[in-house]
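Bench log. Compound arrived from synthesis this morning; before running ITC I wanted a structural hypothesis for how NAP sits in the protein. Inputs:
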Amino acid sequence: MKILITGANGQLGTSIQSLSLWYPEFDFIFTDVAQLDITKLEQVKAFFSLHKPDYCVNAAAYTQVDKAEEDIALNNLINITGPKNLAIASNQYNSKLIHISSDYVYNNDSKDIMNEDSPTLPKGVYAESKLKGEIEVQDGTEQYYIIRTSWLYSEYGNNFVKTMLSLGNKLESIRVVDDQIGSPTYATDLAEAILQIITLNNDKYGLYNYSNEGFISWYDFAVEIFKIRNIDCKVSPIPSADYPTKAPRPLNSRMSKEKISSVFGIKIPGWKSSLEDCLRKIH
Ligand SMILES: NC(=O)c1ccc[n+]([C@@H]2O[C@H](COP(=O)([O-])OP(=O)(O)OC[C@H]3O[C@@H](n4cnc5c(N)ncnc54)[C@H](OP(=O)(O)O)[C@@H]3O)[C@@H](O)[C@H]2O)c1
């Protein structure tokens, strides 16, 4: 099978590249914006026409949540028009589209654990664009998998884990919010889940949640990062109100992964063991 990866130099894309060595049966085509700009429909169509991928994994996105509040046009172009173009081309060339979305689409003020049928109420430019991107995918093709993930981190790029390591080694104390609850997602685990879905090739299209198991706060996450790394930096819990951001953050990002586990038999690692795996790779 031929598998096209867009945004292949990002956290998720690079994690798929690393794992691709273990999947010699797949013919991967890795692209980032220089090779395939997902916002350009004619380019996307020409690429699909030439390569005719069996699957397209859209790991491309505008991911700077706060900057998006000012960079609205570019954010929407990448997060709404991009997936729309991929859906049109996937439909035309009979490719299956795996699109990545976000826990930010829920933000529905409920205290429940969210499943895929829970109401969506995205707040902020990025969050709204992720929901609109999903709708474009659903409108554009029937053969889609949309995976909503949360708190993505990896040994690549910029993320919370790397920020904590850098601050923890510089400062004696930091303050981290403790009232936003969710699950971190190690990008390698998400990449494995995606490759398992492709391997099964069972056409169980639809919407799926994916994150590591266990619910924690950002404060808990920071404490564990420092504990594993023996970093002597005091972490103080603070409410979100004391750490204002341009774009609102959901307080409840707890997602059920029951559906993806049962439909594809995916075993989801707990957040602590995955954090240990990732930290072993960051020197
Ligand atoms: N990071 C998180 O905490 C988080 C949480 C929930 C969901 N997600 C979702 O998970 C997915 C993967 O996130 P990530 O953290 O791996 O993202 P990332 O590291 O920011 O990577 C995104 C990649 O897309 C590329 N890109 C931007 N515009 C493009 C275009 N027009 N055409 C093709 N490629 C383009 C970027 O290139 P440049 O760097 O050159 O712009 C970058 O390499 C995204 O859909 C994101 O919304 C992320």
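What the model suggests: The chain has nine helices and twelve strands. The domain at 2-159+184-213+255-269 is CATH 3.40.50.720 (Rossmann fold).
ITC booked for Thursday regardless.
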